[in-house]
């Protein structure tokens, strides 16, 4: 089982929010700037890596039961976005790696992608 | 089905209010969590409702999200008085989208919304009239089919 803390350390990430939630389990990960794809292809306990920093990212993470959001390339979201995540207990990390490199590092440590089978009722 | 066991909630969805986009879906999700509905079913309801809510904000100039929750199922009805969908079969295709570029920059408008609603729900009805509006009805059963 891989924990959020190990993910943060592998990405040399700064923890913007959710120091208390670093024991959360990370089952799979998804790298995307398209929230539509996140809503279509993720399953729960998925980590989202993204280059977007708007409030829709937090909404999408909340509604899809994601376990945390990692902002890549050192992008730090605005205060309103951080507050929205705080209200929803959504941990936020920031890494300096690009989306490609950050995903590669996590794949290397054994985190799976999200297969295109999404729902149990399929 | 016992009428007294039914809850009916309505949320107004405001056109172009992207900061609040998703609030109706989020409120419905939190309510279903309090009611003890299984998490994987709530997740499908939340995603399907969010896609429909976003469509009303992006394509239709606002509308209403209605949730009817009974012990057996949740029915979500999303209505608007927007431009309507001229060709529903085309709109249902993965990747078909008329969303403008600024919507795409926010991470939406990939043409996956209707396909995702179809995938998430146990039953869906898409009714639309050009210049009249659109009504999406989705049913989600609370227990897996026997
Ligand atoms: N409520 C609506 N009112 C008018 N048109 C809609 C509505 N919902 C969907 N559409 C049309 O159907 C298309 C496909 O919808 P969808 O699959 O959600 O993709 P997207 O929202 O990414 O464009 C939209 O681009 C739009 O043209
Ligand atoms: Mg859509």
Order of helices and strands of chain B: EHHEEHHHEE
Radius of gyration of chain B, whole Å: 15 Å
Number of strands of chain A: 7
Task: Kindly report the average pLDDT value of chain B.
Answer: 94
The CATH H-level superfamily of chain B is Histidine kinase-like ATPase, C-terminal domain
Could you tell me the CATH topology label of chain B: Heat Shock Protein 90
Number of domains of chain A: 1
Number of domains of chain B: 1
Overview of this structure, please?
The complex is a heterodimer of chains A (122) and B (146). Chain A has 122 residues and is α/β, with parallel strands linked by helices. Chain A has one domain: Udp-n-acetylmuramoylalanyl-d-glutamate--2,6- Diaminopimelate Ligase, Chain: A, domain 1 (3-Layer(aba) Sandwich), CATH 3.40.1390.20. Chain A has 5 helices and 7 strands; from the N terminus they run E-H-E-E-E-H-E-H-E-H-E-H. In chain A, the strands form 2 sheets. Chain A has a 5-stranded mixed sheet, sandwiched between helices. Chain A has a two-stranded antiparallel sheet with strand order 1-3. In chain A, helix 4 links the parallel strand 6 and strand 7. The mean pLDDT of chain A is 93. Chain B has a single domain (7-141), classed as Histidine kinase-like ATPase, C-terminal domain (Heat Shock Protein 90), CATH 3.30.565. Chain B has helices at 23-34, 39-59, 88-91, 101-105, 113-120, and strands at residues 7-13, 63-69, 73-80, 123-129, 133-141. In chain B, strands 1-2-3-5-4 form a 5-stranded antiparallel sheet, with helices on one face. In chain B, strand 4 (123-129) and strand 5 (133-141) form a beta hairpin. The mean pLDDT of chain B is 94. The interface between A and B is medium-sized, with 27 and 30 residues. Magnesium ion binds next to helix 2 of chain B.
């Amino acid at each position: 089982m891989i924990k959020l803390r190990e993910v943060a350390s592998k990405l040399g990430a700064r923890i913007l929010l959710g120091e208390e939630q670093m024991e959360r389990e990370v089952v799979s990960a998804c790298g995307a700037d398209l929230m539509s794809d996140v809503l279509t292809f993720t399953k729960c306990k998925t980590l989202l890596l993204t280059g977007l920093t708007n409030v829709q990212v937090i909404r999408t993470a909340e509604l899809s039961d994601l376990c945390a959001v990692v902002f890549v390339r050192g992008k730090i979201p605005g205060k309103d976005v951080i507050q929205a995540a705080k209200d929803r207990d959504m941990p936020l990390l920031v890494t300096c790696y690009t989306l490609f490199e950050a995903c590669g590092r996590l794949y290397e440590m054994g985190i799976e992608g999200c297969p295109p089978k999404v729902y149990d009722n399929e | 089905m016992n009428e007294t066991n039914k809850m009916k909630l309505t949320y107004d969805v405001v056109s172009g209010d992207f900061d609040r986009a998703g609030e109706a879906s989020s409120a419905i999700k939190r309510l279903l969590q309090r009611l003890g509905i299984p998490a994987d079913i709530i997740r499908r309801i939340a995603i399907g409702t969010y896609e429909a809510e976003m469509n009303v904000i992006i394509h239709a100039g606002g509308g209403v999200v209605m949730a009817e929750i009974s012990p057996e199922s949740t029915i979500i009805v999303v209505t608007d008085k927007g431009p309507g969908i001229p060709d529903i079969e085309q709109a249902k295709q993965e990747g078909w989208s008329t969303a403008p570029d600024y919507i795409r920059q926010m991470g939406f408008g990939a043409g996956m919304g209707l396909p995702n609603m179809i995938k998430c729900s146990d039953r869906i009805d898409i009714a639309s009239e050009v210049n009249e509006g659109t009504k999406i009805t989705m049913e989600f059963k609370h227990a897996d089919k026997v």
